[in-house]
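Researcher: Please translate sequence to structure tokens.
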Amino acid sequence: MAELGRTGMMLSRVGLGTWAQGGGGWVFGWGPQDDRESQAAIHAAVDAGINWVDTAPAYGHGHAEEIVGQATSAMSEADRPYVFTKLGRRWDPADRMAPLRTELTAASIQEEVEDSLRRLRTERIDLLQVHWPPVDGTPAEEYWGALVALREQGKIRAAGVSNHSVSQLEACQRLGHVDSLQPPFSMIRRDAAAAEIGWCAAHGTGVIVYSPLQAGLLSGAMTAERVAAMPADDWRSRNPEFTGDQLGRNLDLAQRLRPVAQRHGTTQAAVAWVLAWPGVTGAIVGARRPEQLRDWMAAGSLRLDDADLDELAAAIEATRAGTGPVRPGRP
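Model: Translation complete:
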């Protein structure tokens, strides 16, 4: 367990992500998803000791939040996990495949919060995060000021941001403490270790990283054949990490992780690697079905030693996969 910044919330080292539970048929969907399996995965995660779930309105245009709300509202207060969600990504109801847009006006934020509270079937959100920083010049005073006010009103317990740079974090921090950051971070996408994670550690800001398995590339189950067979409505089929030379380097890295993982009796050395970085509170890992939890649950308690970290750094360097620092304590 680790405290999320200064919030008082003690988190399991891994949390359940629900992006894929939003289902298919939208621009960043993962393909078809059975809602019953989504519900079962949430219950199985809580039964296994995971005490936080991360979701967002954007996932399936509100559908993932509805699934989370249905699952958690039926739990007792003692069993209910912390529920973290986001805001700022809006969609076109008339065209599910249209690109999402970022909107962070105070009025839009108020509307989104009420919609999320309804879908999540709760009176308070444990952590509300700005999904992406604005691209239209909306100042931090407007969007971060709105979240600070919501925290003061008690509608949210904690306020955080996702995908923000150090300069954007500093702009928010000047207006009110940033409780958490959610950056992308994996053995492939490592840039947050060079800047944002260190900033957070110095400012008492928790860090919950997303996509530590790089959307399945580092899971050990991904193959070139499986990538080629992805349906058109799976966003990964259009992502550069899943094509060409990048795909080859990424799959090569996944294979080189196996010796370390096998020594520790797990399949997920990649999740343990992100948790080894000082300043990282926890990692979000998705599961579409209960049985997928077995693949990465043990990573939360796995402690990589210096020899493991050296071997993993060598694997990154040998494959030339991704960018950013390759080892805690080393650039």
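Researcher: Any highlights?
Model: The first helix runs from residue 35 to 47.
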